[in-house]
């Protein structure tokens, strides 16, 4: 896969940038360019870097992803996450405190949302906050994709959803089932 799957809660989208995809192990954040592409794909819900992203930014996100993956993986199965991972999440959550701005425009007060701190702090804080929202909310319904070799996580909108993506894993499983049923027959060109 050239691009990571997106469209799940933010925390799951980030966790899913590393792991077993149907095409084998991947890490979409192995390079600064990979992080930039992921941030572009999340532009509807994450601020975009104004200056150039650095290797230190990437390393910080990957470190937080490690803690997020550990906590989500254990908590969704009812197991206690290690203290270092819980602390990493709550430390990142308060890196950039949210505050509100007030402006006057066209005869009324306009309320805006801002965060203290630089871009990296804001990004880490938003990612940790999204994970904490998931932990405080629907963590128990997070599911693994049933596709062979795939370990993407998703939050099913309906109870029958089985695949991270019907186009990827759903299709692969249907095609594999078809060839098993017609074992020995080569696909027609
Ligand atoms: Zn899958």
From TrEMBL:
InterPro entries: ABATE (IPR010852), ABATE_dom_sf (IPR023286), Znf_CGNR (IPR021005). SUPFAM superfamilies: Jann2411-like. Residues 142-182 form the Zinc finger CGNR domain. It holds the Pfam family zf-CGNR. PANTHER family: BLL6575 PROTEIN. This is Putative RNA-binding Zn ribbon-like protein. It comes from Streptosporangium saharense.
């Amino acid at each position: 896969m050239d691009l990571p799957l997106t469209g799940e809660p933010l925390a799951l989208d980030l966790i899913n940038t590393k792991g077993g995809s149907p095409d084998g192990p991947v890490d979409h954040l192995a390079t600064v360019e990979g992080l930039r592409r992921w941030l572009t794909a999340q532009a509807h819900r994450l601020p975009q870097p104004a200056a150039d992203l650095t290797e230190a930014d990437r390393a910080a996100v990957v470190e937080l992803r490690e803690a997020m993956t550990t906590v989500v993986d254990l908590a969704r199965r009812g197991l206690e996450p290690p203290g270092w991972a819980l602390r990493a999440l709550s430390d990142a959550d308060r890196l950039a405190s949210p505050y509100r701005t007030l402006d006057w425009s066209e005869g009324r007060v306009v309320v805006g949302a801002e965060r203290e701190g630089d871009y990296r702090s804001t990004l880490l804080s938003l990612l940790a906050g999204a994970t904490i929202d998931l932990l405080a909310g629907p963590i128990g319904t997070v599911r693994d994709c049933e596709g062979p070799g795939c370990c993407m996580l998703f939050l099913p909108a309906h109870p029958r959803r089985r695949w991270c993506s019907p186009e990827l894993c759903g299709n692969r499983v249907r095609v594999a089932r078809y060839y098993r049923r017609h074992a020995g027959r080569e696909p027609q060109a």
